[in-house]
Design brief:
371 residues; alpha/beta; Aspartate Aminotransferase, domain 1; 11 helices; binds pyridoxal-5'-phosphate
Length: 371
């Protein structure tokens, strides 16, 4: 059915598009980007798609979905995250938050009396998720560079040795891009003679960067994690929020429930799910390939290091963690920070060198910041 808008309503949409397009050019502070051309997928917006249910289950009653493509996306992630495809299950989520909720849900089902440990630098949504899944939890101190404080973690686990720990590990914190050291965490667990535990990796941004670096910090299934959540709209970037969650299959089987109405298994957090976002991820994976991802990551690192040098030339101390595209610098000149949509927390501000950020943009920003 053709539907048309009145002129004033049409103008409203035009204005909104112009505003967002202009703001996109001045967005340096958040892990979001849209540099890839996905127009070949636009015809999919002409049909109804809903990925309800388990993408890996046999075809259910409702078939207007992209489950096949979603499974291919999950398999690709299994490969780059060093998982054995047979032992790991996953799906395309609405974003990093849903994947973190899934990991904590599985952990709570496995250890109903478990204690979740997470650091002060953990993403703000995690305390809300912990309340939603009704999990016991303790916030651990962070070091000044954003990593979890291993001494505080060890001391706190020692006090609660009667219950299994659930480690919520940050693989790239929101503000400083810090990566909790899984080797140090596992050493603590070993020292305390803890044999039953769960590790969830929140790799919202870094989960798409580390696999394409030469010397990644431990963060994936090769390092004995149980589940991982990654955002898809952050890197490589796509026009709407999405992500991927992967978890050990035997943990997922504990929560799976067959539903006659949809003729498939209910293994996901949501019922109706976006069927277009798996297409964006699939397209990026196929169009870029691993080499394309590697090049993209290297280009971001070049811009990150350039940014740090430019700050240094102005006597402003800026820094980043290894394999991170997040540049942390002091919170100064608030109006300019706002203009460029720079995220701030306490005394710190950060610029995230996403693929759309060029050296020219950085020059422009630093010039205005220090004028
Ligand atoms: C470390 C971390 N975890 C989780 C999230 C939430 O991810 P999303 O916005 O994709 O739900 C973010 C978002 O910035 C994040 O930085």
């Amino acid at each position: 059915m053709n539907i048309t808008l009145k002129n004033k309503d049409r103008n409203r949409l035009d204005e909104m598009l112009a505003r967002i397009t202009d703001d996109s050019a001045h967005m340096l502070g958040y892990p979001a980007t849209k540099t890839l051309d996905f127009s070949v997928l636009y015809p999919f917006l002409e049909v109804l798609i809903n990925n309800i249910g388990d993408p890996f289950a046999l075809a259910g009653c409702f078939r207007l979905n992209t489950h096949d493509i979603e499974c291919e996306v999950v398999k690709w992630f299994s490969k780059i995250l060093h998982a054995n495809e047979k032992d790991v299950w996953g799906y395309v989520t609405s974003g990093g938050t849903e994947g973190n909720m899934y990991g904590l849900y599985l952990a709570r089902e496995l250890f109903p009396n478990g204690m979740v440990y997470y650091s002060e630098d953990t993403h703000y949504s995690v305390t809300k998720i912990l309340r939603m899944v009704n999990a016991r939890s303790i916030m651990i101190k962070s070091r000044s560079d954003g990593e979890i404080d291993y001494d505080d973690l060890a001391a706190t686990i020692a006090i609660h040795r009667d219950v299994p720990p659930v480690i919520f590990a940050n693989i790239g914190t929101t503000m400083k891009g810090a990566i909790d050291n899984l080797d140090s965490i596992k050493t603590i667990l070993k020292d305390k003679a803890v044999t039953r535990y769960y590790i969830h990796a929140d790799a919202a941004l870094s989960g798409m960067i580390l696999p394409f670096t030469d010397n990644p910090q431990p963060f994936d299934f090769a390092d004995e994690i149980d589940s991982i959540s990654i955002s898809g709209h952050k890197f490589p970037g796509c026009p709407m929020p999405c992500g991927v969650v992967l978890a050990k299959r035997d943990l997922v089987n504990r929560v799976a429930r067959s539903v006659e109405y949809i003729g498939t298994n209910d293994t996901t957090v949501l019922g109706s799910r976006n069927g277009v976002t798996p297409l964006f991820l699939w397209y990026a994976i196929h169009a870029l390939g691993e080499n394309g991802f590697r090049d993209m990551v290297q280009r971001c690192f070049t811009v990150v290091d350039y940014t740090i040098e430019k700050f240094a030339a102005k006597n402003i101390q800026a820094w980043r963690h290894k394999n991170s595209v997040t540049v942390v610098f002091p919170r100064i000149n608030e109006p300019i920070l706002q203009k460029w949509q720079i995220a701030v927390q306490g005394d710190n501000a950060h610029l995230i060198a996403m693929p759309h950020i060029t050296k020219e943009r950085v020059d422009e920003f630093i010039k205005e910041l220090t004028a």
